[in-house]
Design brief:
The structure holds 2 protein chains of 2 kinds.
Chain A (H helix, E strand, L loop, with lengths): L4 H10 L7 E4 L2 H11 L4 E5 L10 E2 L5 H8 L11 E4 L2 H11 L3 E3 L8 E2 L3 E5 L5 E10 L4 E7 L6 H7 L4 E6 L7 H10 L5 H21 L1 E11 L5 E3 L2 E5 L8 H4 L9 H8 L3 E4 L4 E5 L2 H13 L6 E4 L6 H12 L6 E8 L4 H15 L5 E7 L2 H10 L4 E4 L2 H12 L3
Parallel strand pairs in A: 15-17, 17-18, 18-19
Antiparallel strand pairs in A: 1-7, 2-4, 2-7, 3-5, 5-6, 8-9, 8-11, 9-10, 11-12, 11-13, 14-16
Helix pairs in contact in A: 2-4, 6-7, 11-12, 12-13
Chain B lengths: L10 E4 L4 H13 L3 E5 L7 E2 L2 E4 L2 H8 L3 E4 L3 H13 L4 E4 L6 H11 L5 E3 L5 E4 L3 E4 L8 E8 L3 H12 L4 E6 L10 H10 L5 E7 L4 H12 L4 E6 L23 H10 L3 E2 L6 H11 L4
Parallel strand pairs in B: 1-2, 1-5, 2-4, 5-6, 6-7, 10-11, 10-12, 12-13, 13-14
Antiparallel strand pairs in B: 3-4, 8-9, 8-11
Helix pairs in contact in B: 3-4, 5-9, 6-7, 7-8
The chains are: A alpha+beta, B alpha/beta.
Chain lengths: 413, 294
């Protein structure tokens, strides 16, 4: 689960990581009041959306479609105001909040549809001498958490990894001892920090983000940039935290922060029905049991020249209700021209699936061709149930047979 | 004999009285009567279908001499169950549980490094030596004893491969589902090494999926060491970057872990790649014939 910047900073603050003072606001008046309460004569108003590239993003309601296309293509020099604005007066803060709240921000990560801004973070400016990158995440190859940092702050780490991999420094934490003080200090020195105060503060920040990762069951804590000021003080200027979905059961406070408006409505509905679903751009809807087979089903559709409309895993022990929910979600997608059901029954019995399919068709009045391939436990019984149902289902025997039939049906053949 | 498990294995189920644990213990024991007991804290002294239930793994090992454990403990407690099994001297721990917090697995993985044990999973269908030992949730009836090893991150996709092999008349020596989580015990590399040394395995089907670099590491090893033919498939060539495809570990992140780089590693290692998951069985027939093994 992804968090907003203001939520990430709140978690970091709780674990001793210095972040600039700031307040989240959901309306313009609150944004203005937040700026007044912060005081000073310089503020930054930041749109709170999960996508990156906010500063270079532009608002759909304000700029032309051609500008948005440039944004999505990753252009950096586009006209108009973005999702991160520097403000030198309260009037500027008001104008920025008015522009952002309720409007749709398009960044290179959101695609052209963009995402509606419902919250802004009003924060103070920072004194910036140097920008660095630092994160804690799981290194799968070592089965350990890694503290990763680079002197190229402000740049996405993937870019640094591609262009200047030696700029990325890493230390691995032993889960039994945690991240050692010496490791945190070593990282500071490896980044070329020499000022004694800065080394101490940087090391404390590294330990703080490790502590945040552990305490919140994160899968990523990223500070980009971490800023060193002219006096040598360290602060986390921007923050990204993603929580391990498998640990949300014990992170109740964080789980309550879930913002479903950030996700595709079909994906939200699928999650509620305990289905694993990812929306794609094609026109062949897929319903499959098991994640590996679901991916393979997408792959074979593509292999035969079709385009999958989604990834959908109904799970290993799906009941009739889940099959109905799954087909409902797939048929809501107007792009879908054909549906391919691919079930390899193990624990899941094919006769149960067949009954679910019949119930779903009865309920949704399916209007697109439905190709069904059943294999494994009770496959013959399942096929018989479908054949006797009188429904216009296209039966298939093998994976290849099903994919070929689905691709042909989607093409109207 | 095949690898890791056979009819001499002595298996307990941790979480034997839970609904999934009970169901799959029954199914597995009916397929291969190698189960000797189970563990559910608080139910020690009771019986499950004639199998004794113990409060702890240590007690179960002491009384039954179990050397394999199949774990169905719910996610919040499953990493602890793995460590308990390792501490009790279980040699092969098969953890079926899906949804264990990654932080818990980091600790459990570290803990078992010093123990004399092998972990399979978590988030896996288990392991089967057809006709001899089924420890997991796979449907036994689709398997057939034979000489092809299967290693895969996925459950139903493994069944698909097994189904194709059985359909073309090729039996399996052992099939291992290594699991779809970011942190797993037995890797593709470990499985290839075991199959390579197993006199009863002629060739291997290796099924990977997007996310991480375990397939590349296995290919790097196989390139110089694998003496048996390998047929390979990677699931998720059409998966978009940055999206988790069902399995906790199946995600292309930071531009890494895509199917193409894994296919390239396979081709570089001499693995016989199939781009269509429908061709795993037929490709194996072709490869066996070319190698004089069929």
């Amino acid at each position: 689960m992804k968090l907003h910047e203001y939520q990430a900073k709140e978690l970091l603050r709780r674990h001793g990581v210095p972040v600039p003072p700031g307040t989240a606001a959901h309306n313009v008046e609150d944004a203005v009041a937040a700026a007044e309460a912060l005081g000073g004569n310089f503020w930054v108003v930041k749109a709170q959306v999960h996508a990156g590239g906010r500063g270079k993003g532009r608002f759909k309601e304000i700029v032309d479609a051609s500008v948005l296309e440039q944004v999505v293509a990753g252009a950096s020099d586009v006209p108009g105001k973005g999702g991160v604005q520097l403000c030198r007066s309260i009037d500027d803060v008001r104008a920025a909040a008015e522009l952002m709240l309720g409007n749709t921000l398009v960044t290179k990560q959101t695609g052209l549809e963009g995402v509606v801004v419902k919250t802004v973070l009003v924060t103070t400016g920072a004194d910036i001498e140097q920008e660095l990158y630092v994160s804690v995440l799981l290194d799968r190859a070592k089965s350990r958490l890694v503290l990763m940092a680079s002197t190229e702050g402000g740049t996405e780490i993937e870019e640094v990894a591609a262009e200047n991999p030696s700029a990325i420094k890493k230390v691995w934490a032993d889960p039994i001892t945690g991240l050692g003080n010496w490791q945190a200090a070593q990282m500071a020195y490896e980044l070329g920090i020499t000022n004694k105060k800065t080394v101490r503060q940087a090391a404390k920040l590294f330990k703080g983000i490790y502590a945040t990762y552990m305490a919140t069951d994160a899968s990523l804590v990223e500070i980009n940039p971490m800023v060193i000021g002219s006096e040598g003080d360290v602060v986390a200027l921007d923050a990204k935290v993603t929580i391990d979905d498998s640990a949300l059961f014990r992170q109740k406070e964080i789980a309550s922060w879930y913002d479903e408006s950030e996700d595709d409505p079909a994906e939200v509905e699928a999650a509620k029905a305990h289905l694993s679903f990812v929306k794609l751009d094609g026109n062949i809807g897929c319903m499959v049991n098991g994640a590996g087979l679901a991916m393979s089903t997408m792959d074979i559709i593509k292999h035969y020249g079709g385009e999958p409309a989604n990834f959908l895993d109904v799970g290993g022990g799906a009941k009739k209700e889940q099959v109905v929910a799954a087909l409902n979600i797939i048929t809501k997608d107007p792009a879908v021209r054909c549906i391919m059901v691919n079930i390899f029954g193990g624990i899941m019995r094919c006769d149960i699936i067949a009954e679910g399919v019949i119930a779903a068709v009865a309920e949704t009045g399916l209007e697109v061709p439905l190709v069904v391939r059943l294999a494994g436990t009770n496959a013959e019984l399942g096929k018989e149930i479908l054949a006797k149902s009188g429904l216009a289902i296209i039966p298939a025997d093998t994976l290849a047979d099903a994919a070929e039939k689905a691709v042909a049906a989607a093409a109207g053949k | 004999m095949a690898i890791l498990v056979d009819s001499n294995s002595r298996v307990i189920t941790q979480g034997i009285t839970g609904s999934a644990g009970a169901f799959h213990t029954r199914m597995s024991h009916a397929y291969s009567p190698i189960f000797v007991g189970g563990v559910t804290p608080g139910k020690g002294g009771q019986w499950f279908d004639g199998l004794p239930i113990f409060n702890t793994v240590a007690e179960a090992v002491k009384i039954t001499a179990a050397n394999v454990s199949m774990i169905f403990v719910p996610p919040p407690f499953a990493a602890d169950a793995i460590m308990e099994a390792a501490d009790a001297g279980i040699e092969l721990i098969v953890c079926i549980t899906e949804g264990i917090p990654a932080n818990d697995m980091v600790r459990a993985w570290r803990y078992i490094q010093d123990k004399n044990c092998r972990l399979i999973g978590p988030n896996c269908p288990g392991i089967i030596t057809p006709g001899a030992a089924k420890i997991g949730i796979m449907p036994g009836h689709i398997h057939k004893a034979g000489r092809i090893g299967v290693v895969s991150k996925s459950g139903t996709l493994t069944y698909e491969a097994v189904g194709q092999l059985s359909a073309v008349g090729l039996g399996q020596s052992t099939c291992i589902g290594i699991g779809g989580d970011p942190i797993i015990g037995t890797t593709h590399t470990d499985a290839l090494k075991l199959f390579n040394e197993d006199p009863d395995t002629d060739a291997v089907i290796m099924i990977g999926e997007i996310g991480g670099s375990a397939e590349q590491e296995a290919c790097a090893w196989a390139k110089d060491n694998m003496t048996k033919p390998v047929v390979g498939f990677i699931a998720g060539a059409t998966a978009p970057p940055g999206r988790r495809m069902g399995h906790a570990g199946a995600i292309i992140s930071g531009g890494k872990g895509g199917a193409e780089e894994k296919y390239e590693a396979m081709e570089d290692a001499g693995v016989h790649v199939v781009r269509s998951p429908a061709e795993m069985g037929s490709k194996m027939v072709e490869v066996l014939k070319a190698n004089g093994l069929l």
